[in-house]
Amino acid sequence: MNTDRYDAIVVGGGHNGLVNGAYLAKAGLRTLILERRHLVGGAAITEELRPGFQFTTFSYALSLLRPQIIQELELTKHGFLPLLMATRFAPGEDGEYLLFNRDHDETLREIARISPHDADGYEQYSHDLDRVCQAIKPLLDTLPPDLFSDDPEELVALAALGSRMRGLDKRTLHNAVRLLTGSAADFLDDYFESTLLKGYLASSSIIGSKVGPRSQGSGLVLLFHSLGEHDGEFGAWAFHKGGNGGFTQVLARAAESFGAEIRTEAPVERVLTRDGEATGVALADGSEIAADVVVSALDPRRTFLEMLDPRELPDDLVEDIRRLKFQGVSSKVNFALDSLPSHPELGARPDLYRGFMNIGPSIDYLEHAFDDAKYGWYSDQPYIDCAIQSTIDPDMAPAGKHVLSCFVQYTPYQLRESDWDAQREAMADRAQAALERFFPGFGDLVLQREVQTPLDIERTVGLSEGNIFAGELLAPQMFFFRPAPGWSQYRTPIEGYYQCGSGTHPGGCVMGAPGRLAAGQILSDRRRAAGD
Amino acid sequence: MIRTTPFHDRTSALNETGLWQHWSGHVVVTRYQASDKFEYFAVRNSVGIFDTSPLYKYRIAGRDAERFLSGMLARDIRRCPPGNAHYTTWLDDRGFVLEDGVIQHRGSDEFLLTSAEPNFAWFADRVGRLAVTVEEVSLDIGTLAVQGPRSRDLLARLVPSVGHLPFFGITTGTIGGRSVTVSRTGYTGDLGYEIWVEPPDAGTVWDAVWDAADGYGMLPYGMGALYMLRIEAGLLLLGADFDSSRFVFNDAHRSTPLELGWAWMFKGLEEDDRPFIGRRALERERAEKTSRWRMVGLVVDWQDYDRAYSEAGLIPPKDHRPVHEDWMVYDADRTRVGYATSIMYSPVLQQHIALARVRPDLAKPGSRVFLEFTVDHHYEQVAAHVARLPLYNPERKTA
């Protein structure tokens, strides 16, 4: 046994592991963060895959990051710099498009250009959604009450939750329930008539999830993606300087500034336990490191079924984790481009690309894309969320050249009678063909293409089945039930072993809330133990 | 009749918003495109270009120029050798600030002073028998600010001596075949330069910089972005953060340089025997500690700010657009202890910040005060702490 002993070891240097380790170190715990790969960041990394071209290999934008983390971990001192997205662009069929900029009135005029009805519909929709977000958002910073506990504190927390819901006005509560349980298409139909606008807005209802915009449950995904904020603006997104890898480097510097130690290329083989208590970790190289607290930032499947021997766990927990749905459906196809793509109507204006560009011209388009996935195949015409980060952060590509990050869906983890090693490039060809359709001549601009299928995401990052949220954002897998009934408060049945990954409440995206809330729980357990 | 600047053809071709404003009798761009915050980020992350021509400019030259200025300016101009510039101020004989500006020491007997308002008479009328000429050259020089982390790389390609120009250094060269002076100065608190050109050369110089910037992510920025940048940089604005003692009606609107936080300008005053206007009052203020205020930065407590709005059922607004008005500052006993004059939400600091005067005993960084906001049509005092200026001070600014 190594003589080194830590107060806490965090397994996994993704963004939640880094956040968790930073909070623990800030509280004075001697903390070690262990990362399997050669760089920290997990799925939020930036890699120079071609000289001068910085690729956001997986995750590529920021919104849900909890603002408390920015302040409490003093991230601005370490280079936190979320760059504003100036525009949003949604090309439609036959050269039609919606181009939004940061001027609210111009945005309304742009909508009125294709549908006068939808201009004030958009105002009403935005307002209604803001109200729901305002009501729901505090839950992102709250431990879910334990429904199955008789502890009076939990009952008080449950009552407080109920009382908060009762405090909402009828319409907001009803909208919240409709979003949490219903489909995005139904919700959007109440406000809009424009096919293109509905397609654009419905796109956030499917991100990373095996649902179509007409599926029950897509409302929840839409709401989830609206819960973020940028500089106080609900639902707004930003590109971090240097991509999301730039962001996780900021987190790493912050963690180290508080005294956390980060070790890369240090894969953990298993969590060591004795008599139902965690005692440390064993690394793949055979060495062991002792610690009072071990925190897993991995997804629930790995946290419970790989880091531990399932026989150490209660049967129902093992079964619940086995039942947890991952089924990743999204891929990344990243391009190095020789110059900006050209739209048939608007040309190659840089302002088209200073934010997200959305290939999802109608709800039908998205739903058809989903149809393919239902039967185990990737979309013939996929949904794509594009970002040319080099138009905002010129350090991402050489002068005049660009990097294009494409989030491509649907590409189900399980393929019918085939596998991703066989289909990787064919899938990317479909994505490229979709881009060609909306930006004729696109293919001529491509200098390099990099493809990350769900299988690659699983292999490289360790996210089971390539699910980007470390467990799907489905109602039965949220809040009280994330990742499993009775285990939503970051503890595990093994004393001293905690979970802090995106598979825990509130969920995925570069939010950091699981890492932060888990740290709060660990520290409060330690205080309680010290008081006993 | 409102004037246009020497760069007007270029700025108007780029102004997509149709928004203009007046500055010192010139029409200038408020913002070029829908978001001034996007323009601001060009300066903080890549490079921005700004037409700063409307400044007043005076050429002060002659054998006695340095001697003259050492009596007119409160900061010791003799410590600014040729090839350098100085941020300086000039006072009245009661020690109140008339104005601030940057002075360039261009040649052994030649200086160029910039100011926000007319000051010709103030200087020209005090030449006396010295061998000095004061010349109004405001309209004879166009000025282009090129600011941001990539500004050095960009300009060094055009004027190689820029590559090693120190903070507040001056050099000369040619851009687009036209003679220019380049100073490492600006109003953004970032790495940055200003290019000084003759008006007929302005378009050519702009074009040469614009062409060289291809691929640099350069954006033109307007007054909206400028005001954001300067507040983060702790750079005061005449008419917002202070007024000229000459044209106000009472001392409540006057400020001394010590009150404005410029004590650093007077390091070594004991060894310097210059008689300059305001010196005795300044020495008295220093000795007797009679300063009424001290200019500081305020950083608003984000939790308390969010609380004030959330309790009212509102989404806490985080508006980057600066407000140049008086905002009252209180201590923990709710006694008024100062006032803020510029306030904004800072995107790089991710907090609301303000430039404020507080009682000198509260000027220590970390002192807890309360800033008064209006929430739901009533006053709400929100916790804040005093912080040293500049609030944003990247190493690259002086490196």
Description:
- The complex is a heterodimer of chains A (532) and B (399).
- Chain A is of the alpha+beta class.
- Chain A has helices at 15-26, 67-72, 104-114, 116-136, 152-166, 170-181, 184-189, 195-202, 218-226, 243-257, 300-306, 315-323, 363-374, 420-438, 442-445, 454-461, 513-531, and strands at 5-11, 31-34, 46-50, 53-56, 82-84, 88-91, 97-100, 229-230, 233-234, 238-240, 261-263, 268-274, 277-283, 288-296, 330-337, 356-359, 383-387, 402-409, 446-452, 497-499.
- Chain A has 3 domains: 5-44 and 63-81 and 242-324 and 473-531, 3-Layer(bba) Sandwich (FAD/NAD(P)-binding domain); 86-107 and 327-462, Polyamine Oxidase, Chain A, domain 2 (Alpha-Beta Complex), CATH 3.90.660; 116-206 and 213-226, no CATH class.
- In chain A, β13 and β14 (288-296) form a beta hairpin.
- The longest helix of chain A is centred in the first third of the chain and has 21 residues, at 116-136.
- Among the domains of chain B are: 8-53 and 141-221, Probable tRNA modification gtpase trme, domain 1 (Gyrase A, domain 2); 294-396, Elongation Factor Tu (Ef-tu), domain 3.
- Helices cover 19% and strands 31% of the residues of chain B.
- Chain B has helices at residues 8-14, 36-45, 65-72, 120-124, 151-156, 202-212, 223-232, 279-288, 302-310, and strands spanning 20-23, 26-29, 47-51, 56-61, 84-91, 97-107, 110-115, 133-136, 142-147, 170-175, 178-183, 192-197, 218-220, 294-300, 327-330, 336-346, 351-358, 368-375, 378-387.
- In chain B, the strands form 4 sheets. A 6-stranded mixed sheet of chain B has the order 10-11-12-9-3-13. In chain B, strands 14-17-16-15-18-19 form a 6-stranded antiparallel beta barrel.
- In chain B, β16 (336-346) and β17 form a beta hairpin.
- The longest helix of chain B has 11 residues, at 202-212.
- Chain B is globular, with a radius of gyration of 21 Å.
- At the A-B interface, α2, β5 and β9 of A face α2 of B.
